[in-house]
Write a sequence for this structure.
DNA sequence: CGGGGGACCATTGCATACAACTATTACGGG
DNA sequence: CCCGTAATAGTTGTATGCAATGGTCCCCCG
């Protein structure tokens, strides 16, 4: 369990460690402002310091940690306004990507999105048997595939980074509006199926505005 | 000269190497698709492989290179549509940032922008004595400071990454519209001075649309 | 002569080891 | 008792070295 947590098959170590640290940051295992020692992380994931260092450089450029030479690496702290801006940026980029995706999506991407919706519906019908974590995972993947369907690797990468950060912010308290959310996803996929860029853009924009509103309500803690 | 190119003061090596490689990628010293060997880069910049590796991880997450385990690192290739999308994304993000900047800019940031404009005007009046590279550098910094003035570190980082990539694309052939460009910059700063978010957003949008148009004209090669 | 398979080599991935710097703490002076 | 300074310890930065893997070239076979 914790023993084998980061036991890598001597391959892809850096990427695995990077994902693990990011997951632990997003999952609030490491609290914002906390100092991360390379040796501590190395021990935690059962690797040496080199993969840890490389993972930290990636996470730094993604904005999850920041480090000063010889001083150490610290988990980033997102201000409230920063969290708000994140949602604003997302509201810009995802509709833009969806517009492109309506024109450029491949059949495989379309089918993947439909598959994700089907899996989500199954989970919802089963009464969240897969757990809310499963739905959140599906949601992340949905938005990820949607971004990739835009045909722009840069845009997809940016959306992915944003998605991680928003998960981080949202982790304070998940708004529970999964059924509505997935219904909206269906509308988005329909627009992609119809190759209707305007509808795709508008539906994604509306989807994100609603998520944003739900977040703001939860934000009053 | 080339001898001392990457001779680092035994500090900040990784960041310096990262910037150097990025500059060489943007400057077309390394051509898209080219394979970069760690040892070759280490020799070029007079450092060991470790800083090179870490720099490459950063550049990978920024999208300038891509690497597969054990296979090597390759300079990324930007398709024409990808270049077009880059400009589209910039057209989304920079006006958004400018809107925020009009409300959040600090006096120091405002003064910095004014300083940059003054320096640019001096160069222009001197008949591009500082060289076009100097103006391009000032342009990059202007947009960088403008993005930072939005008060959102995430947004600033994204704009910075985009800026590098756009410099890369533009390096195929610089559109020479520096005088008009800097006149527009003045209008933008005026909007920030007036704390007028709508004007700031619109002027930046117009500025970028014109740069985009100039690029498209040049693009017909 | 063209295509497939295998061995060699270059290169990457990772761990260990040493040097350099920061932060903390203890000590002495005011 | 507080502040400034210096030594110390802990952590980061970099170099060297070895094991694992992918790419390439050559040989053999069809």
């Amino acid at each position: 369990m914790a023993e084998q947590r980061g036991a890598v098959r001597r391959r892809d170590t850096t990427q695995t460690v990077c994902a693990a640290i990011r997951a632990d940051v997003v999952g609030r295992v490491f609290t914002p402002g906390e100092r991360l020692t390379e040796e501590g992380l190395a021990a935690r994931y059962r690797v040496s310091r080199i993969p840890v260092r490389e993972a930290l450089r990636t996470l730094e450029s993604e904005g999850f940690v920041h480090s000063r030479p010889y001083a150490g690496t610290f988990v980033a702290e997102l201000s409230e306004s920063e969290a708000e801006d994140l949602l604003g940026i997302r509201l810009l980029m995802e509709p833009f990507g969806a517009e492109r995706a309506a024109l450029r999506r491949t059949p495989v991407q379309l089918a993947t999105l439909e598959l994700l919706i089907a899996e989500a519906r199954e989970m919802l019908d089963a009464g969240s048997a897969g757990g809310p974590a499963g739905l959140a995972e599906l949601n992340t993947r949905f938005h990820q595939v949607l971004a990739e369907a835009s045909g722009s690797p840069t845009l997809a990468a940016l959306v992915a980074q944003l998605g991680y950060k928003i998960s981080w912010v949202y982790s304070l308290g998940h708004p529970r509006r999964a059924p509505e959310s997935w219904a909206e996803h269906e509308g988005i996929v329909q627009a992609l199926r119809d190759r209707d860029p305007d509808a795709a853009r508008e539906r994604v924009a509306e989807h994100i505005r609603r998520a944003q509103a739900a977040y703001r309500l939860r934000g009053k803690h």
User: Anything to note?
Assistant: Residues 1-9 of chain A have pLDDT under 50 and may be disordered. Strands of chain A lie at 35-36, 65-68, 72-75.
